[in-house]
Amino acid sequence: MIKVVTVGLGYIGLPTSLMFAKHGAEVVGVDVSKRVVDFLNAGQVPIEEPFLQDYLTEALSKKNFKASLTPERGDVFIVAVPTPNAPDEFGSCDLTYVKQATEAILPHLERGNTIIIESTIAPRTTEDVIQPMIEKEGFLVGEDIYLVHCPERVLPGQILHELVHNNRIIGGVTETCTEKGKEIYGLFVEGKLLGATASTAELSKLMENTYRDVNIALANELVQISDKLGIDALSVIEMANQHPRVNIHQPGPGVGGHCLAVDPYFIVAEAPKEARLIRQAREINSHMPHFIVRKVLDIMEENNGKTITVLGLAYKGNVDDMRESPSLQIVNQLKSLTDYDIRTFDPYVANSDAYSLESALISSDLALVLTDHDVFKEIPAHMIRTMNTPVLFDTKNCVSKDAMFRTHYTLGNLSTVGKVSKSYI
């Protein structure tokens, strides 16, 4: 039985730890939060993810998982801590937590151990930053210690399934490191184990998310172009995607989450002169909340409204994850720019203003959908009738077209909103 020590028990570290435990490994999960450690040892998962509670319950019953505030000796060490944007010109990769996690495990290393960096990091970090830290302790990477970058590529809401079935990039500093990584993940991964260099794995992960960010930016720019020209952007996308080699992504109120809104900046910071398209895409997507707010204000002025109901605070549907959520930016802008009554409702987020969809809509003048939760797809007529002005602005194009709203705006038909002369932003 191998012993795995995971540093970081968030959205990636915890599911990964419990997956190893389910497949026979002895696992110690380490986190700096005493609250998280206490929750887990008491048998409660602190994050919303399907089946994760079942995995924890099973692991605790088999006594092959425990949470701890400090690392200990092991065979495999996995670093799965956050890597936020640094507060610099380009939003580069802040390695503070990765370095702290690496320093924490160094005293427990023994020859033959494997260190796996799962945190999303800038290109060449594994070789230029992590490797020197290990070798400073007297170990030779590739012979004494095996060092691998193995980026996660999972979808919140489907993490446990995708950990098993997705292909996995195994980026070793040496070929021997890569083989060690394949051996470890082979314990449960049924997808392909794709060998690569560490730097290739780092940049591949960043480009996976950047590809999606750039394509969403194209769709969001199309929305603004179509708004100016009086054309339905969603119809344009539908028609264009009938071409066998075209796949324009769906537009939205912005881009959130711990990947798409963050990772492209890591590339820009490493090659700012070369990453022109990537930087422009980030600017377009970052501006979308401003565009949405401007349209909301147009709608409210057109209808002489006073109350806005924001439906959805999470960055994507059917999860509680609010990291980098454009919904929060939109809510904050509306509150700072206007005197409207702003209500929020998200069934997955504990600190919503309203306790139910029905209570959120009573006497409202606009239902503003910012997250595509399933609960918003079919809004009952009796709830809509309680609104003062039954107007919908569905930025995710998820609400049924049969919903009994008087007016149903999407990112396709925004040009029909009455134009106002006042400048808000």
TrEMBL record:
Keywords: NAD, Oxidoreductase. This is UDP-glucose 6-dehydrogenase ywqF. The keyword Metal-binding does not apply. Its EC number is 1.1.1.22. Residues 309-401 form the UDP-glucose/GDP-mannose dehydrogenase C-terminal domain. It comes from the Bacteria. The gene is ywqF_1. One of its GO terms (molecular function) is oxidoreductase activity, acting on the CH-CH group of donors, NAD or NADP as acceptor. SUPFAM superfamilies: 6-phosphogluconate dehydrogenase C-terminal domain-like, NAD(P)-binding Rossmann-fold domains, UDP-glucose/GDP-mannose dehydrogenase C-terminal domain. One of its GO terms (biological process) is polysaccharide biosynthetic process. Belongs to the UDP-glucose/GDP-mannose dehydrogenase family. It is an enzyme of class 1 (oxidoreductase). It comes from Listeria fleischmannii subsp. fleischmannii.
